[in-house]
Amino acid sequence: MKRLHQIVSELLASGKAKLVIGYEKGTGEKRRPAFISDANEVERLVFDSQCSHNLSVYLTKPEYKHVTEIAVFATPQTMRAVVRLAGENQFQDKKLSFIVMDQDQNALLIEGAEVLANHLGKEKIALSSAQEELLAKFEAMSREERFAYWKEQLSNCVKCYACRAACPMCYCTRCTVEVNQPQWISVPSSLQGNFEYHIMRAMHMAGRCVDCGSCEAACPLGLPLNIITRRMIKDIEASLGPDIVSMDTKSVLNTFQPNDKENFIR
Amino acid sequence: MARIGVFICHCGENIGGTVDCNKVAKSAESFDGVVFSTDYKYMCSDPGQTLIKQAIAEHKLTGVVVGACSPRMHEPTFRKTCSEAGVNGYMCEMANLREHCSWVHEKGEATTNKATDLVRMLVGKVKNNKPLSPIKVPVSKTALVIGGGIAGIQTSLDIANAGHKVVLIEKQPSIGGHMSQLSETFPTLDCSQCILTPRMVEVAQHPNIELITYAELESLDGFIGNFKARIRKKAKSIDEKLCTGCGMCTTKCPTKKIPGEFNEKLGNRTAIYVPFPQAVPNKPVIDKNNCTYYQKGKCRICEKFCPTQAIRFDQPDEIVERSIGAVVVATGFEVKGTDFFPEYGYGKYADVITGLQFERLASASGPTLGEIRRPSDGKIPEKIVFLACAGSRDPAKGIKYCSKICCMYTAKHAMLYKHKVHHGDAYVFYMDIRAAGKMYDEFTRRAIEEDEVKYIRGRVSRIYEKNGKLIVKGADTLLGAMPVEVEADMVVLATASVAHNDAADLAQKLHVSYDENNFFVEAHPKLKPVETNTAGIFLAGACQSPRDIPETVAMASGAASKILGLFSQNELTREPVVAVVNRAAPPLFSTCAGCFMCQSVCPYQAIEKEEIKNRAGETIKTVAKVNPGLCQGCGTCVAFCRSKSIDIQGFSNEQMVEEVFALLNND
Amino acid sequence: MENNIKVVAFVCNWCTYAGADLTGTSRIKYSSDVKIVRFPCTGRIDFMLLMKAFAEGADGIIVSGCHPNDCHYTSGNFHARRRWIVFKSVLETFGIDTRRIQFSWVSAAEGAKWAEIVNTTVERIKELGPYTEYRELAGVEAP
Amino acid sequence: MQTENYTITDSNLQQLLQALLSSGQKVVAPVRANNKVLFKEIKSASEVCSDHVQTTLSAKHLAFPRTEVLLQYKKTGKEVTINDFPFDAVPQTFLWGSRPCDAGGFAPLDGIFNWDSKDAIYNKRREQLTIISFSCTRHDDACFCTSMGGGPGNTAGSDMLITPAGNGTNIAEIITDKGKALFENYTSLFEEAMGADKEQYLTKIDKVFDTAEIKAKVEAFFESKVWKEQSARCMGCGACAYVCPACACFDIQDDKHGSKGSRLRCWDSCGFQLFTLHTSGHNPRETQARRWRQRVMHKFSYMPDRINVVGCSGCGRCSRACPADMNLAEHLEVIMKMEAEKI
Amino acid sequence: MSKNMSVAVYPGCSLNGSSREYMESLRAVLNALEIPVNEVDDWNCCGASAAHNIDQDMAVALPSRILAQTAKDGYSNLLVPCAACYNRLKHVQQEIKTSPEIRQKASVLLNQEINTPDTIVNILEYLQSTVMPRLEGKTLKPVSKKVACYYGCLLVRPKGISDEKQIEDPQGMDQIMASLGAEPVSWAFKTECCGAGFSVSNTTTVARLSSEILIDAADRGAEAIIVACPMCHSNLDMRRREIEKYSGRKFDIPVLYITQAIGLALGIPAKKLGLQRHFVPVKI
């Protein structure tokens, strides 16, 4: 932990970072995001295996739009999100540096999203065993069973949009949900409105989701949202090729191959 | 509040026959926002259009829905009517009650209900239309003509003589196309060289025409008025400025046995060659595949003898760029080879030749200097059999259409043969004689009656060679399908005219559609024969479908006139159906999140970055902006944008959703 | 076999709409349960519009446009194809009945193919019956 | 009305529940579904879950549903027919197994919905609602009801309060007329009160501050940067408002389908970035800090001032539901400890 | 050779009747090359040209039974030397594979499940694929004669049924004869009609058509005509007197089956090849 605090203090002292977004102890055993800008608060910062929030979600918030030098604690998920956000021109004028835990758990400083991109491992983010089991059960379901499953799950969704707020890739100032001319997503948080919202969210994640699971973690009702995106990524990889995380602005939906394979268009 | 007028057309019986137009008009009155609804026998006729104008004035309409034929047919007509009556053209929509309803369903209540639904859909849409005015776009007044045959030559001359610049590109070393290969042309039998060569020279010397031969279109970007053409000038291995066309190299070149394309492989040419004496430009080209230097690295004799050292062996292909306002495709056609016909010997028999090869035999500049001699032994044939419809009108061979010109040139060939070999016998096996042009039928009658060409009505089933003779086995359907056998010295097949084998690639480069025979598809078979679906790209000649010289010249002038119309104004007005990125009051400025993934979706690179700056000049936000000049209105970015920040005028999200809702909420 | 079903067809203006016109000019009869909505290109068809159509009462949807390589705008149909590949997989995840959506390429010269696609799709939707299962989701009183 | 105490055995309690169920009334109770406990309408007594500290969502949806059709309209030609809210269709509902803080949450709601115009729909749903709460025998570190004037055994808001008193018996307190009416229907199930002090059965939650102190403190530090520090990690979702029993903000939207449609009232949250966006583009509460300050000031200062009821019952749901662990109690404690600041 | 590797032979009526020598020569050649000849067990008439003109069901049922019998014996490919039988069997196999109704009808008529061997080969395909490779090693008595290979109609037509690429100028027999040392003549009547079934009902037509074939073959200097179909052989050989009467010319060109030619090359005595059965004497 000492190495960590030392790096942060140096960053703040040298002005390379005007704001450090890290983790601190929360209620009970929880970890939560911490925002440090002066040196003597560095002690609050921790970075251990329980830290799971994807801190890159704050980099696109209006509050931090005008802070150019920011340092962020980066878990593998956060790294993937930062690289893709950089690919989507979201860090136009930002000078970012990242504190990363390498294999043997000591802190490492990386400067710039490009450097981070090639530091990125290719390995996939592992699902928890409960999620794996639910995904397997889900695969075996018939269409009717899946429809019933989601009818039951989405009946609890109150559209509090915690999943949208927690997702680093959801940074639109006005989301389609708030468009009422035309009213794309039906207003009542009835089942139909919830189906439309979650289908739209999945489609907007096509080729962009970094599989960090923040959406599922944030949902107060515990809906299995990670299954939706994880299953979509698997299908996309099966039909359209590997889902590589890179700075490249080419993602699944805004590019094509002249001979994309499909078996349902007559 | 919207004040919509609904006008249902009977289209004579076309719609009225199966749709109760009156009932549709009546039920349209109850639609939300409709203040006037009527039906009339011919809405597109003058009285019909005046009816609309009166209704607009009387009921102060703000929007119009016309239930009639396909908008692809009369949308411009009714939009013009509305704008003349003071309602913006884009506040007028059409419901397709004919092609999509009356013509395809049985008479009955269901069909009338569907017609009502279609009208309700468009009323729902019109209520969300916004008045739009056409976009003004500058026009670069240079035309690109692809193909230097008679079609390309005529188009280029018409445009150039009207004072506009033309870039004429031709794949072969010289312009002239197939016409330059012809001996004499029907129906007047005047020699093609005499009427074509002056035009070719006129093209070469015309100040407004930039002639680039031995060149092909590499790519075409942009849109009407603002195309950017990249042309690949294939290396001629000759410095055209230094070369005086003296022809020394062509005489000295040791490789003399290459079957010449111009003579349809009946005569030979050298590796460095000028296709034919009257070639324009009259400068040689080195055929890299057959030149010993390029193949084996030795020789270079032409270089030694060239008085002006114009030979450039290391000359590379060159890509030149031109900004172009409009394009004319005049790439012409090809004829099928004799190897296409198994029953006539798979092209094995030397004396079974194509019509084009006969032209070369008959031509004074041909390999036999105009004497009809047969390729195998050079003897003058005593008896020639001509086969009309060789490959054409034959679905089994995959060519369903009639090639249109073969009846006429077959009669001409027979006539030329009789003029040159008086004692010779000419037989023509035919199905029907299609001579429908001016002086055409008289021409074929002359061949039959004066020149005693024996026309036998029947198909030839087989040709085989027997001790120097070609046994032609056919039947005479006018004599009860009696088998007929003719021992001929030579057989001329009037083979089918087909599209060039690379026509499809050119079509895809130009984003122009082509039919199953790879001929280019016109915008409308009757009303827009010289235009294509892609604005600014026109067609001339046989590349659209087989046609003879008079029609080709007429079509070429037609295409030229379209372009002169386009070039007559400095600015081009374009359909305002373009995408627009929304703007909002500060501090938001736009809901665009600046991800710019839409840029890679746009096929026309019409989306740019706009930096929104505050008074101090600092960039607050970078958002997307659509260049209305480049945007062609495909709408892919609109459906792609995750934050719904881009919308397209004419097919906006609001319009499309309301159209669908109006259809589905009909109870 | 339910017979008053509603099928919406979202088609591109340059190919399938013209193909449907050709079906008209060749007087080929087909089912009147399909109504055609014109779009400049298949690239313009928004996946959420399909969801709205089902929500508003459509029982079946046809989406059709130019064959690959024939798009008037060069790549509209390529992007659309990618979108439909992803969208179909997402719908299958949620258990939406993708048999009710028929995707196809119909060119301006394929009038007969258009009639055939409409008839076979209408037949299939009639067998499946109205899509009440999805419309019932709109009941506001969520438990 | 003076609360009367009785005793009711566990088995009689089950019988009471069974009686309510068999009487065809709508009974809502905590139900456990894939590791979350939510208030759901139950059909049999076995569904009721009782080994939980608190449900995820509050019970406010029984009076203020997350989406509610206020009226429906239909346009035929030129006239419009409107059918009003079906007041008589609101069913009599029994809320079984709520906590004192759930019941306590209805007071701020009543306050807001009857502030200047009496909300007929809300009041009708409240009239039809009978609340049978169970005192808390356990709590977790998010609970701070004692600091909000409530407590694990507080009776405010409930019609009848059941406190488990061990060895199969429970103390039943009848608090309101509705509680009395319920009691009179099933007097046979109740026995004389044992007179034991119920405090001993309740869990102990130490009081950290009280509403008056908090009100003074938050008003004092209105311009302080504490709001910015505390709300730095808030992501601007609506979870805290939607789970809170006391939050009453709603949004009116129309749901139009062709010529008919309905006017809806839906939950909204001051935490959303676009909550106060004006059509002019101006947003008085541009940053998350201002929105967080508004949430606290509204509950602990503005409501007490205007309708003298505290907008929080200390249930701790917002702290549990927050993805960024914005623990309200902890934040209030921080503000309590703040001394005068050089602003 | 395991069963599914070896091939079943369907002789058909003419190879056991009027053109017995075709089967004898085939059997002789295969024996010489140690290839087992297994006739289809209890085979029946294939319906030839009569069936499908008269009754569609019979036209399907007869060949289906043959195919079923072959499949039942476990053979995966079926050799059909006679061109007419080959045509019928291949046609019905295609119909069974493509249309379930026809397959169903056939199985009802024959009340047994219809399944078919994978491939049906005609004599030329079989000779080229199986016999010729075996001849490489052998020392052959060269058949140094100028021969005209006559294919007739059903060996190469119609397009959908036969797999022949050059329908108008087939080369199959020419290549085989060339490899036997003969000199195939390039002539124009390879696939011209010989009059086929009119042999009995309209003999003058057969005479006219067949004489044209013989005239061209003779004029090209052919010393023998090679055929691979019983019908062709009978018209060109058996009707020789009528041909000579019609054409007024004397032809002594013998007509041999391709299998007989191969037999001669292998040195098999004439009697075993059935050469003595011909009307036009074969002088080696």
Helix content of chain B: 25-40%
Number of strands of chain B: 34
- Characterize the overall form of chain B: globular
Total domain count of chain D: 1
At the first level of CATH, what is the class of the largest domain in chain B? Alpha Beta
How much β-strand is present in the residues of chain D? 15-25%
What's the name of the CATH homologous superfamily of the largest domain in chain B? FAD/NAD(P)-binding domain
Element-by-element helix/strand order of chain D: EHEEEEEHHEEEHEHHHEEHHH
Number of helices of chain B: 17
| Global mean pLDDT of chain B | 93
Radius of gyration of chain B: 31 Å
Largest interface between protein chains, with number of residues from each side: B-C, 50 and 49 residues
- What is the topology, as strand order, of the major beta sheet of chain B? 10-7-6-18-29
**Distance between the ends of chain D:** 49 Å
Count up the domains of chain B.
5
Assembly state (oligomeric): heteropentamer
Overall outline of chain D: globular
CATH architecture of the largest domain in chain B: 3-Layer(bba) Sandwich
Poorly predicted spans of chain D: none
Give the helix/strand class of chain D: alpha+beta
Main β-sheet description of chain B: 5 strands, parallel
Structure in words:
The complex is a heteropentamer of chains A (266), B (667), C (143), D (343) and E (284). By secondary structure, chain B is of the alpha/beta class. In chain B, 27% of the residues lie in helices and 25% in strands. In chain B, helix 1 crosses helix 5, helix 6 crosses helix 7 and helix 11 runs parallel beside helix 12. Chain C has a single domain, classed as Lumazine/riboflavin synthase (Rossmann fold, 3-Layer(aba) Sandwich). The mean pLDDT of chain C is 92. Chain D is globular, with a radius of gyration of 22 Å. The mean pLDDT of chain D is 91. Chains in contact: A-B, A-C, A-D, B-C, B-D, B-E, C-D. At the B-C interface, helix 4, helix 5, helix 16 and helix 17 of B face helix 1, strand 2, helix 2 and helix 3 of C.
